[in-house]
């Protein structure tokens, strides 16, 4: 059972930083999704895919994974760079 630990990225429609400080432990898919023959919806028998655990810090998420014997990979948060420009630059 493998998992990913990452920090929630900011939504593209979001200007604030709400819910971006939490760290998430999410299990990697164990099997591929396949279409249901009757409805055509995609699904699988992997129930761990539905589980996401939220933590206050990365260290807390790592401690939980170590305690329960979960193999994990920490995905670092990308560095945010701001492109500073004046409003008048939109009309040049």
What does this protein look like?
The protein is α+β, with helices and mostly antiparallel strands and 92 residues long. It has one helix and six strands. The mean pLDDT is 88. The chain has one domain (2-91): Double Stranded RNA Binding Domain, CATH 3.30.160. It is flat and about 55 Å long. 11% of the residues lie in helices and 25% in strands.
How many alpha or pi helices? Answer: 1
- Helical proportion, percent range: 10-25%
Sheet/helix structural class: alpha+beta
Please report which band the strand proportion falls in: under 5%, 5-15%, 15-25%, 25-35%, 35-45% or over 45%.
25-35%
Mean pLDDT: 88
CATH architectural category: 2-Layer Sandwich
Shape: flat
Beginning-to-end CA distance, first to last residue:
54 Å
From the 3D structure, determine the CATH topology. Double Stranded RNA Binding Domain
Contiguous uncertain segments of 5+ residues: none
Number of self-contained structural domains: 1
Number of strands: 6
Our Rg estimate from Cα atoms comes to 19 Å
The description of the largest β-sheet is: 4 strands, mixed
Spatial strand order of the main sheet: 5-2-1-6
CATH class: Alpha Beta
Task: Name its key features.
single chain, 92 residues, alpha+beta, Double Stranded RNA Binding Domain, four-stranded mixed β-sheet, two-stranded antiparallel sheet, flat
């Amino acid at each position: 059972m493998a998992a990913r630990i990452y920090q929630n990225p900011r939504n593209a429609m979001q200007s604030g930083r709400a819910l971006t400080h939490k760290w998430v432990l999410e299990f990697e898919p164990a099997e591929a999704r396949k279409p249901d023959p009757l409805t055509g919806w995609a699904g699988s028998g992997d129930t761990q895919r539905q589980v996401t655990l939220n933590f206050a810090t990365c260290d807390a998420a790592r401690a939980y994974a170590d305690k329960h014997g979960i193999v994990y990979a920490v995905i670092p948060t990308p560095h945010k760079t701001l492109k500073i420009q004046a409003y008048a630059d939109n009309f040049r």
